[in-house]
Amino acid sequence: MSFADLLAYAGGALTGHRLRTALSMLGVAIGVASVVLLTALGVGARNYVTDQFASLGTDLLIVAPGHTETTGGVPGLGGTPRDLTLDDGRAVLRSVRGVLQASPVVMGSEAVSFGDRSRDVAVVGTSSEYAEIRDLHVAAGQFLPPGDWDRGAPVAVLGHDLAQALFVARDPVGQVIRIGEFRMKVIGVLAKLGVNLGVNFDEVVMVPAATNMRMFDRTSLFRLLLKTTPGADLDAVQRDVKAVLVERHAGEQDFTLITQDALASSFSAIFNALTAAIAGIAAISLSVAGIGIMNVMLVSVSERTSEIGLLKAVGAESRQILAAFLLEAVLLSLAGGLVGLAVGWAGLEAVSALYPEFPVRPPGWAVAAALGVSLVVGALFGVLPARRATRLDPVAALHG
Amino acid sequence: MIRLTDIWRTYDVGGRPLHALREVTEEVGDGEHVAIMGPSGSGKSTLLNLIGCLDRPSRGTYELAGRNVGELSEAELAEVRRHQIGFVFQSFHLVQRLDARANVELPMAFAGVERRERRRRADAALAAVDMADRAEHRPDMLSGGERQRVAIARAVVMEPRVLLADEPTGNLDSRSGGQVLARLDELNRGGITLVVVTHDPAVAGRADRVITLVDGRIVNRMRGEELGAANPWIDAAESAAEGEAEDAAAERPVSGGTEAAP
């Protein structure tokens, strides 16, 4: 029997029971669609986050106060981390070779108002170097003025959306706004940037670091950003930065050094694990669909007992009958798989239409695996019913 | 053509042996027309299934065209059924989702006959049973007689040496039945060996020879024309009953008409 004939025979059996075929296909379709959709979302989320880190640049070193590995020791001794100060930043910049630029970051949250318009926003205290390190651009006016970090000038740079919200159509540059109880002169507006690493730069107000520390009565920096000279050995720079800061902090490492590489790879690992878990859950629905197929095929075999008996009477061999029923199960699951793929694809198109900035592409391995698994599911769960078909006693099958 | 020597077919029913056939020895010549008669549960369908290689004897030897069927593998048996034997059933056994032509093509498809050749032979076989104009009809659009004629076309499309018919007119009215029998006779005259299981003396009377089974044993052999309108097995059963009364009482096969095989 040629494969085309076998295919026609198995296909004919499926189209003979449209509703049943459609329902059992649906099970596989849902499984495959969810594998495709969920893994695409998982991988998309990972790519999104790692892209964000990549936008930091590989030449960035971040110092944060406190040390995640600080362990007990004698209580009361060395337990509290020292502040990370502007002086620390200056010292690192001055004495570590390979550090090109440094920029302090202090964070706060306060109501910003102009006239009767007011908004609660993040207040970022930093320095002029920040714009270069983070590649920020101004749409109007200028960024924070260069010079002494300790000079807390009463000036502010507004995020793009914040400027629009407060000033609507007027030019904000040169106007005076209030941040909490402080009056600040607007010297610039940032170009539209969007969300980066969880901070919406369109909704912030940026002020000099010293101004911010005074406003919020802070003594410690939130972060110290260091930009290394191109081609510098990042490990050596890290070592030297650590040495300088440890010395300034009385021999204690009460700060944490973060590179964007380390951040990105740890996030990437988290998202990979998440994607695998999601895919695993989706795969369970595929195996449930497989059991559905087995059920349908068992019903099909018992319904077609006399047909199987007839096939034996006209001289069909056991392996032909096995092949016919196995092919029927595989066709069923494969068709379901293709439908599921189409549904998954349509779902992804919808997601990317709704969130254009979110990169959703199903990973090739997931598409291949979903189809492959649906094939295997059909074959695997088709074996039992097909074997049952071939083992039927022809005499009983014909008369039963 | 068919040589049965001391054939027994024993089923195990609830731990007890049930003899559907006992020491059946019979020979059917090439091109012969033989009818098997007997009451319900006499083993006549079992015998037909055995001749058709759907079943194997528990004891004894069965030679078909010189080959000992008992020694053949499962695949070889399938091959014998494919090329040497055609079946016609009381309930037709047409595949409902396939039209008449596709039903006739079915054995050829499994035998690997090429598509165009298949179609040609199927159309010829349908034409021979006057069903050429119904080739595209599905079984549910055909009358009983038409279905049986399609089934005959399917049974002979592989040009078997032996045609086995199990109550071929059992589900038909007398007119359709007459057409079916006429076609079977015609095939037999063309050289095919024909074995018909029936309880209808009018059907059996057309055969060259009539074999009567009672309780799995051949109790009577006669020529077809000797068979009157009388039920031959009643007399035969009575004469046989004397010697085997106790046997028969203990081991009478389950009744079930032609579905004697459990």
Give structural attributes.
heterodimer, A: 400 residues, alpha+beta, 2 domains, six-stranded mixed barrel, two-stranded antiparallel sheet, 12 helices, 55% helix, elongated, B: 262 residues, alpha/beta, Rossmann fold, six-stranded mixed beta sheet, four-stranded antiparallel beta sheet, 10 strands, 25% strand
Could you please describe the fold and organization of this structure?
The complex is a heterodimer of chains A (400) and B (262). With 400 residues, chain A is of the alpha+beta class. Chain A folds into two domains: 185 residues, no CATH class; 166 residues, no CATH class. Chain A contains twelve helices and twelve strands. In chain A, strands 2-3-10-5-7-6 form a six-stranded mixed β-barrel. The relative contact order of chain A is 0.19. About 1% of the residues of chain A have low confidence. Chain B has 262 residues and is of the alpha/beta class. Chain B has a single domain, classed as Rossmann fold (3-Layer(aba) Sandwich), CATH 3.40.50.300. In chain B, strands 6-7-8-3-9-10 form a six-stranded mixed beta sheet, with helices on both faces. In chain B, strands 2-1-4-5 form a four-stranded antiparallel beta sheet, with helices on one face. The two termini of chain B are 28 Å apart.
Set down the secondary structure blueprint:
The complex is a heterodimer of chains A (400) and B (262).
Chain A: H1 3-15, H2 18-54, E1 60-65, H3 86-95, E2 99-114, E3 117-126, H4 129-133, E4 138-141, E5 155-158, H5 160-167, E6 176-179, E7 182-190, E8 195-196, E9 199-200, E10 204-208, H6 209-216, E11 223-228, H7 234-248, E12 255-259, H8 260-303, H9 305-313, H10 318-354, H11 364-391, H12 394-399
Parallel strand pairs in A: 3-10, 5-7
Antiparallel strand pairs in A: 1-11, 1-12, 2-3, 2-6, 2-11, 4-7, 5-10, 6-7, 8-9
Chain B: E1 2-13, E2 16-28, E3 33-37, H1 44-51, E4 59-64, E5 67-68, H2 74-84, E6 85-88, H3 100-111, H4 115-128, H5 144-156, E7 162-166, H6 174-189, E8 193-197, H7 201-204, E9 209-214, E10 217-223, H8 232-251
Parallel strand pairs in B: 3-8, 3-9, 6-7, 7-8
Antiparallel strand pairs in B: 1-2, 1-4, 4-5, 9-10
Helix pairs in contact in B: 3-4, 3-5, 4-5, 5-6
